[in-house]
């Protein structure tokens, strides 16, 4: 019988196999992240100062990848939520729980670096601009998910409740994004600032893509490391319950 | 002007580095705590047997 | 099926209207929020009448979030939630009727007192009508969205604040289109129809997604 991808998928689901894979994946991804980030930022700081914004445009190499990752990690969490509810994959909720703080951290970095970038370019730290506001809402949703995880005692019921919330959030985020864009264009018709990817000069585009890849590997390494801890935490919990049962 | 701007760049990169380092330290400490707890529990069980 | 829906509506309304049911508390909280604002920004009548509709919206949103944990909390405690899960009535329909009953008991009073509170803030007549109408459409949308949070936290003790934190990000579109439609109706500076239609669309959308997601959360939470 040929080996189907489905079989491979279920092999991945085995926590022991995952723990062995995590053992080499974390250092490999961390090393790749360090190399790519060093290379990308080196290229970025070699780039000539931007005509309008001067050297502050260099904030882009951390700001833009953070925005992509904050959105990308949320999408991955929505897939993991489906994994919990539909396929009942045993590692899906572990991945979902471990991803939430990493996604929240990137959303926060995106917000704060955006605010710092806004000061010299727009003359203000915060602008109720569509993009900023929807990222702030995404950050709030991340915090809500983390809060819901912490509210439950039992990991399995927490996993299912959080999965429902994540999926509802996934449906709602485009609506929030749309309404916020509609709202901010109503307030200020001219968008102060836009980054049109393809029209960007190569001296900026290349370091941006390289550092985005580096940040992605960093996020992957952090998520896998947090997942490994989560598997251990559940083992500790099970052993404690056993110990309590034996003591009786 | 440029000096002021490099301040902003430094702040942005500094903040990002701070958040990421804090997250990494938190993940590492959490891992160490859980490993320690697990080792203690297993030692306890072995002792009983 | 209609009889079952009516039965749920009648039961939930009776529970919330009797002593300790908390139907009027939301409206009193609404009054308190609106009363606090002039103290915070000063007795400037012109400024107050300008931002009055916005204050009413924020107050109504906060007051709607207040009682959400009551929708399923008491039912989860006394076991009637398990009966709902076992009954032949689809859980989505049951959740819909419970949200409707919750809105009649806590949301409708907010809409009714809104024009009176608007008078306190010096909102002109046209604005009073606009904000009341918009609240009539917006508060049920908030209730249906809040239903999801209530269902997620049904098995949790002291879930009130958690539900509010979970739900606020999702109510932002309602707030945006509600205030925009209100402002458009008052100043006529921007087209009223667009925002109003979006608000109605949000109500219909949340009336579907709220009960469906809440029913899923309840089934999962009860291990079914």
Task: Name the structural class of chain C.
Answer: mainly alpha
Q: What is the domain tally of chain C?
A: 1
Count of helical segments of chain C?
9
Strand content of chain B: under 5%
Counting helices, strands and paired strands, the structural category of chain B is mainly alpha
Average pLDDT rating of chain C: 86
Helix content of chain C: over 70%
Give the fraction of residues assigned to helices of chain B. Answer: over 70%
Oligomer: heterotrimer
Short note summarizing the structure:
Chain A is mostly helical and 248 residues long. Chain A is 80% helix and 0% strand.
Description:
The complex is a heterotrimer of chains A (248), B (49) and C (224). Chain A is mostly helical. Chain A has one domain. In chain A, 80% of the residues lie in helices and 0% in strands. Chain A is built from 7 helices and no strands. Chain A has helices at 5-13, 15-46, 60-85, 92-122, 130-151, 155-187, 202-247. In chain A, helix 3 (60-85) crosses helix 5 (130-151) and helix 4 runs antiparallel to helix 5 (130-151). Chain B has one domain (1-49). In chain B, 96% of the residues lie in helices and 0% in strands. Chain B is built from 1 helix and no strands. Chain C is an all-alpha fold and 224 residues long. Chain C has one domain. Chain C has helices spanning 2-17, 25-41, 45-66, 70-78, 80-86, 91-120, 125-152, 160-187, 192-221. Chain C is globular. Chain A binds chain B through residues 54-56, 58-59, 62-63, 66, 101-102, 105, 108-109, 112-113, 116-117, 119-120, 218, 222, 225-226, 228-229, 232-233, 235-236, 239-240, 243, 246, and chain B through 1-2, 4-6, 8-9, 11-13, 15-16, 19-20, 23-24, 26-28, 30-31, 34-35, 37-38, 41-42, 44-45, 48.
């Amino acid at each position: 019988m040929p080996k189907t991808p489905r079989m491979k998928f279920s092999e991945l689901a085995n926590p022991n196999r995952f723990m062995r894979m995590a053992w080499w994946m974390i250092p490999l991804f961390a090393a790749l992240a360090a190399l790519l980030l060093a290379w990308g930022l080196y290229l970025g700081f070699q780039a000539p100062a931007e005509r309008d914004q001067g050297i502050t445009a260099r904030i882009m190499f951390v700001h833009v990848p953070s925005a992509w990752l904050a959105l990308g990690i949320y999408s991955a969490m929505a897939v993991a939520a489906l994994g919990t509810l539909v396929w009942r994959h045993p590692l899906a909720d572990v991945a979902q729980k471990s991803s939430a703080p990493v996604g929240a951290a990137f959303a926060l970095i995106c917000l704060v670096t955006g605010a710092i970038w806004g000061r010299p370019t727009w003359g203000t730290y915060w602008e109720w601009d569509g993009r900023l506001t929807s990222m702030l809402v995404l950050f709030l949703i991340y915090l809500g998910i983390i809060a819901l995880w912490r509210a439950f005692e039992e990991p399995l019921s927490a996993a299912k409740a959080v999965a429902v919330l994540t999926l509802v959030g996934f449906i709602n985020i485009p609506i929030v994004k749309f309404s916020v864009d509609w709202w901010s264009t109503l307030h200020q018709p001219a968008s102060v600032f836009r980054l049109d990817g393809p029209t960007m000069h190569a001296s900026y585009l290349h370091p941006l893509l390289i550092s985005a890849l580096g940040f992605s590997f960093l996020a992957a390494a952090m998520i896998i490391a947090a997942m490994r801890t989560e598997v251990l935490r559940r083992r500790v919990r099970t052993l404690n319950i056993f110990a309590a049962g034996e003591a009786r | 002007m440029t000096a002021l701007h490099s301040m902003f760049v430094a702040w942005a990169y500094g903040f990002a580095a701070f958040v990421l380092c804090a997250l990494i330290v938190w993940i590492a400490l959490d891992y160490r705590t859980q490993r320690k707890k697990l080792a203690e529990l297993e030692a306890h069980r072995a002792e009983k047997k | 099926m209609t009889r079952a829906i009516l039965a749920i509506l009648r039961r939930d309304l009776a529970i919330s209207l009797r002593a300790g049911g908390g139907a009027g508390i939301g409206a009193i909280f609404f009054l308190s929020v609106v009363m606090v604002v002039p103290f915070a920004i000063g007795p400037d009548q012109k400024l107050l009448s300008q931002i009055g509709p916005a204050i009413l919206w924020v107050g109504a949103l906060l007051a709607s979030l207040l009682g959400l944990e009551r929708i399923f909390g008491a039912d989860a405690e006394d076991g009637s939630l398990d009966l709902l899960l076992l009954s032949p009535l689809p859980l989505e329909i049951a959740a819909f009727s419970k949200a409707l009953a919750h809105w009649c008991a806590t949301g409708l009073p907010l809409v009714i007192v809104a024009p009176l509170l608007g008078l306190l803030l010096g909102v002109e007549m046209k604005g009073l009508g606009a904000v009341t109408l918009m609240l009539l459409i917006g508060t049920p949308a908030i209730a249906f969205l809040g239903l999801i949070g209530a269902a997620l936290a049904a098995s949790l003790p002291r879930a009130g604040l958690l539900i509010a934190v979970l739900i606020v990000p999702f109510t932002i579109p309602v707030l945006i289109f509600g205030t925009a439609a209100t402002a458009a109706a008052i100043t006529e500076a921007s087209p009223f129809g667009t925002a109003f239609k979006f608000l109605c669309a949000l109500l219909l959308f949340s009336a579907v997604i709220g009960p469906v997601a809440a029913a899923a959360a309840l089934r999962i939470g009860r291990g079914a």
